[in-house]
Amino acid sequence: MTTQVIVLNGGSSSGKSGIVRCLQAVLPDPWLAFGVDSFVAALPARMQGADGGITFAPDGGVSVGVDFRALDAAWIEGIAAMAHAGARVIVDDVFPGGARSQQRWRKALGDLAVLWVGVRCDIAVAAGREVACGDRVQGMAALQAHVVHEGVGYDLEVDTTHTESLVCAQTIAARVG
Amino acid sequence: MTTQVIVLNGGSSSGKSGIVRCLQAVLPDPWLAFGVDSFVAALPARMQGADGGITFAPDGGVSVGVDFRALDAAWIEGIAAMAHAGARVIVDDVFPGGARSQQRWRKALGDLAVLWVGVRCDIAVAAGREVACGDRVQGMAALQAHVVHEGVGYDLEVDTTHTESLVCAQTIAARVG
Amino acid sequence: MTTQVIVLNGGSSSGKSGIVRCLQAVLPDPWLAFGVDSFVAALPARMQGADGGITFAPDGGVSVGVDFRALDAAWIEGIAAMAHAGARVIVDDVFPGGARSQQRWRKALGDLAVLWVGVRCDIAVAAGREVACGDRVQGMAALQAHVVHEGVGYDLEVDTTHTESLVCAQTIAARVG
Amino acid sequence: MTTQVIVLNGGSSSGKSGIVRCLQAVLPDPWLAFGVDSFVAALPARMQGADGGITFAPDGGVSVGVDFRALDAAWIEGIAAMAHAGARVIVDDVFPGGARSQQRWRKALGDLAVLWVGVRCDIAVAAGREVACGDRVQGMAALQAHVVHEGVGYDLEVDTTHTESLVCAQTIAARVG
Predict the structure, then answer these.
(1) Cβ atoms within 10 A of the Cβ of B73, count?
(2) Nearest CA to C91 among D79, D87, B129, D42?
């Protein structure tokens, strides 16, 4: 069965973006890549830090409002439609609600062939990479590391603590049909 | 009738991106924004400069291959699905094939309420802004300025030659239902 | 006399960066370009929003602390040294203290041949460009537009309200010895 | 003796930038950071890919011309002047000529207290990170990995193959006077 969508879920600074770029490089077909970062970039600038939008607390906590949720739901439908229209798509996301977040994706992706991938990273290492990136809200990695995986079902999991992005990508690519 | 999608079409460096950000700021509802730049960013890096992908000639000419076209078609379907799912969406695109490119969008957008906007700019001014941006392929603005509008039907047109992005956005916003 | 340094001073969103890139394109010799943005990027991330560092108020006000000032003074000495070592250098800055800020540069630049350029822009237009940029603190343009020019002496002034960056750059380049 | 300048030398994708950001975070004083990337960003756009400037070959080879060298020499003088003026400065560079490149820095830095740091990374790992970054010229990491260290003297060396940026930074910080 041909994999149509790869969904990567993991906390902030767990290494999803690097894996996505490596997947696009090692997979023989061209895959589109979208993710939480490109979604946030598509929002009006004023929704950052606003009621209804997305707010980053000093401790790294993230809260999203009703407008954010509505647009996010429509965005997920759009990603599903791209795959239905024949594009192979890699998505990286942060599931704030764990299993509940996965359920939203499952419902939208319907009968598409999806490879579910969990991206893990030791909290201390992820927090260190948060510092190394320079533009991340400190504390987000620690807050999200476990909660995003709660109750989520995966086809495979990778751990970037001691494994390079490219190696993780090769492991994932070996499972792509 | 409530406008569901705003499509801006114009050549490289005609000022689309600035208008999009102003539209997101002045429109009372939150609108998602996608465009040719975010689409290209979603492609595998190796498709830039490759057969099948997108190639920029030294004179500013752009040519796209069969893989690019297929993914682009699926991306358009995805944008339409986001709007059908309730998101209000602004798209900025470059119609390389003029009327033919518009026809692709029309077919995908179906019965959605679309506001078609042409973005014009004098060639010499657009070429100058290409220099001011620093990261643009020189010559692209001149090559695209006219051809992208050939045979395209608009609800309104704006011209950034002597009019600021914000003023163009206000003109467009006044036409949004 | 050969111009060794070009200093552009103007408020936020007055159009300095575009002029700098155009100057680098139109001047026959290669000029290095540094500015307030590259200086801030060289600071530790933690100095943004911190005592001693640089703070952006919600109304667009900017305040800098003692650490910022000390590093800024050393940075200015470094720019002067590059010019003394033979590099031709373009600097774009915001003179928060008007004449006092210019005096700091004058002292550091000593006997170097400097072309002082004021970059003006109508407040309403600059505020609109702030919106079009998408990543600017709103209100900064209006607060800085006049105060940065108070008591500052220029060799020439350009106004980006109705004049493109490239044309401003050509005007400046014509005065470069 | 108070360290005034930290110079990090290592090949492309060896992990210098992440270490620099972590150093700025862990060192108690504010340090300015400059490097080969910020230097290249200060050059006219037209010097990329041009005679006299900097050229990237398809195999990852980098060659620089006479204009690049002259501006680079002046830039080094400027960095030294910033340190002489009291700023503590971290520099990350790629020494294309190994010992010869170090000699240029030694001469400019004179009697400043410098901590020389070599940044190593296994070639295969660095090449993988090149892919994960997405915007790097492939092959550069492998070509530079060894040659940049030839004959260079260090106060300490770090290896990012199995050690995180933050840990490398802490090791370096422990040696800062």
Answers:
(1) 17
(2) D42
The conformation of residue C147, written as its DSSP 8-state character, comes to G
- Cβ atoms A2, A89 nearer than 8 A: no
pTM: 0.95
Element (H, E) at B113: none
| pLDDT tens, position by position, D67-116 | 999 999 999 999 999 999 999 999 999 999 999 999 999 999 999 999 99
* Alpha helix ranges (H) inside D43-98: 66-84
Closest CA to B98 of B19, B153, B161: B153
Residue in C25, C131, C164 nearest the CB of B166: C131
Residue of chain A nearest D167, judged by CA positions: A128
Whole-number Å distance between alpha carbons of D38 and D35 = 5
Using the Cβ of B115 and the Cβ atoms of chain C, whether some distance falls under 8 Å is answered with no
- The pLDDT tens digits for C100-112 are 999 999 999 999 9
What is the least distance, in Å, from the CA of B123 to any CA of chain A? Answer: 29
8 Å CB contact between A54 and A68: yes
Rounded-to-5 percentages of helix, strand, coil across chain B: 45, 20, 35
CA distances from B158 to B10, B15, B19, D173 (A): 10, 10, 10, 56
Burial (0-12, 13-18, 19+ Cβ within 10 Å), D24: buried
Using CA coordinates, name the residue in chain C closest to B18: C132
Instruction: Extract the runs of DSSP E, i.e. beta strands, from D36-121.
Output: 54-56, 62-64, 89-93, 114-120
Q: What CA–CA distance (Å, rounded) separates A47 from A60?
A: 17
Q: Is A97 left (phi over 0), alpha (psi -120 to 50) or beta?
A: alpha
Summarised one tens digit per residue, pLDDT across range B117-136 is 999 999 999 999 999 998 88
- Reported ipTM: 0.95
For A30-49, the pLDDT digits (tens) are 999 999 999 999 999 999 88
Q: Which subunits sit against A, judged by 3+ Cβ pairs under 8 A? A: B, C, D
Dihedral angle over CA of D80, D82, D83, D86, nearest 10: 160
In the chain, the amino acid numbered C87 is A
Query: Which residue type sits at C137?
Result: V
The pair of three-digit structure tokens given for residue D135, joined into one six-digit string? 């915007």
Residue B133: its chain C contacts at CB < 8 A?
18, 21
* pLDDT tens, N- to C-terminus, chain D (177 residues): 799 999 999 999 999 999 999 999 999 999 999 999 999 999 999 998 888 899 988 888 889 999 999 999 999 999 999 999 999 999 999 999 999 999 999 999 999 999 999 999 999 999 999 999 988 888 999 999 999 999 999 999 999 999 999 999 999 999 998
D172: CB partners within 8 A, 6+ apart: D6, D19, D23, D115, D117, D156, D158
| CA separation for the pair B45, B47 (Å, rounded) | 5
Look at residue B51 and tell me whether its pLDDT is greater than 90: no
C177 Cβ neighbours under 8 A, 6+ residues apart: C1, C2, C3, C113, C115
Whether residue D157 contacts residue D15, with contact meaning beta carbons closer than 8 Å, is answered with no
A157: helix, coil or strand?
strand
Chain A residue whose CA is closest to C130:
A45
Helices (H), ranges, B36-90? 36-42, 66-84
Going by C-alpha positions, the residue among C137, C144, C139, C175 that lies closest to residue C157 is C175
B2 three-class SS: coil
